[in-house]
Structures are given as structure tokens and as C-alpha cells.
Design goal:
49% strand; single chain; 4-stranded antiparallel beta sheet; 28 strands; mainly beta
Amino acid sequence: MKILCKSIFLLLLPVLLSSQNENPKETLWTIMFSPDGKYIATGGYQDVLTILDAQSLETVKTYQVPDVILSRVKWHPTQNKLAVITQSTTFKAKILDLDHDQWTALSGLNSASRAVDWNYTGEYLAVSDLEGIVSIFDTSGNLISSFRGDKKGVTDLDWHPLKNELVAVGSQIGIYNLEGDTLNSFYPTEKEIFMLCVEWHPSGDFFVIGDYGDLEKAENKALRFWNVKGEKLHEVTGSKGEYRNIRWSPDGNKLATATDKLGIYTKDGELINASISSEDYLWGVDWSPDGKQVITSSSQGKITLWNNKAEKIKNVDY
């Protein structure tokens, strides 16, 4: 297997942002519904974290996060708190208590952050960095454990929906427990690729990864469905754009993907609905808690609300 230079791996994300005629200063990297479906959190290069009304898409409140690239936001499953991570060394990762407008910094982080997720109970928060370290925190920001997930960088991770295990991706796929013990680790292809996103199915029986394709020509972009044994269940190829983010509907019947378009797939990898392909590539994607709507954010700063058939309801320029 061809070995990927770590420096190339770490530099690839900014390269992605400047591709496809994108303006990095407009890009909204992340977007997410609140658990009650009333609000949406989003951010990117704009120096602010923004809370929107979920139906009108009007701004409810903003929080200043100057001079950072806001990578991901993740709403706590039961509390009105947001985990916020950035690609800055000054503001790496924090928890925002929205009821009291209070920030809590996460201790012990040495590098900019790339991925974040609460476990199924909301008791633990996992954060990864581009140095390949995964750190686990409690809701007060105290470090519980830390371990190396991928020596070339962890670009995304996702907690199992029913137990304290997580899957992390970068140059390889790894499954770990709370203490950082490796339960399984494998490469998805013979030729090394760059994986951008991963999501467990709500059943916990399998997960899906989305990738950038191979490193040489950015070809062969794919969605790949895996079980915990490392057995490939399904593979979807042929996308024009890399799979930047993916999200399962609450009932697990549909998978939404953010590429050059919004794609909606069955749990067996069949494409059933898609928006029109555009040069305004999508970055963030999330389902409403009732599974009736999808929200996306784009490289040109557009926020779009869709129905569950990938039909546009409304959009706003951020």
C-alpha cells in the first residue's frame, strides 16, 4: 500500500476549500438542527457562530468566534449546549451553554480540531485533531482519556448509537472503546484514499464513510457501507464531488449526503432523490428531528432547507 505523506494529508483540507472555484471566506462548513427542531446552528469562515430559526432561517443570535475556521458544531442530545470546534490553535474546542451564554474550554488539546461528537447519553464528548489524537471529555470540559486514532490525522468520528464505542476515519478506519482500545482497524481500499466523513446507522449494525477519492487525481469518490467486522456491505461510486458530510435520517431509512448536490439514499445505498448538481458544493448537512426536512450549507455561504425528497423549500445567503 502506498504510504501517504503526513504533510500532504494535513494540507489537503485547505486545498479542498480552494477547489471548484470556491471562495473560502464564504464557506459554511457546518450546520445542524437542535434536538427539538426549533433552531439551526451554523458557521465557517465568517468569524461568528450563528443560531437561526429553523423554519424562517432568520438569525436569532450570533456568537463571535474571530479569526478561526469553525469546523463543526454538535448539539448535546438533551441539554441546550453546543460543542464547537475550530481549526485554530487559539480556540481549539469549547462547549457553549446557550442558556447562560457561557463558554467552557476543553483542556489538554495540543492541535486544531477537525471532528466532534457527543456519545449517545450526552455524558461524553469526543474531539479529534489533525495530528491523529482523539480526546474524550465530560460535559464540564474535563479530559477523561486520550489516544491516537490515526497517525496521519482523524478527519471525522462518530459514537455508536447504543454503546460507548466510536468509529474514526482519516487514512484508515478504526473502531475504539471509551478507553481508546482498538476494537478493529482496517484500510478501505488497496490504494490509499482520504476519508472525510463517517456515520453509524441508528441501528448500530453498520456505518457509512464518504471520501475524497484517491490522492493522486481525486478520482473514484465513494460511499462505502461497513459492518464492525470490516466487511463491506455496499459501495456507491460516480459522484462528481467528494462526500464532505453525511447524515442518517432519525428513522434510519434515508442517508443524506453533501457533495456537488444533496443526495438521498436508502440504507442499501440506492439513490432515490437528488438535487441538481451545482458548482456551489455543499458542506454541512443535517436532518430535522422529525425526518421531514434537510438543511444544508454551502461553499458560497448559502443555507438551504429541503424536504425529504431533496426538493428545495427555501434558501438564504449567509
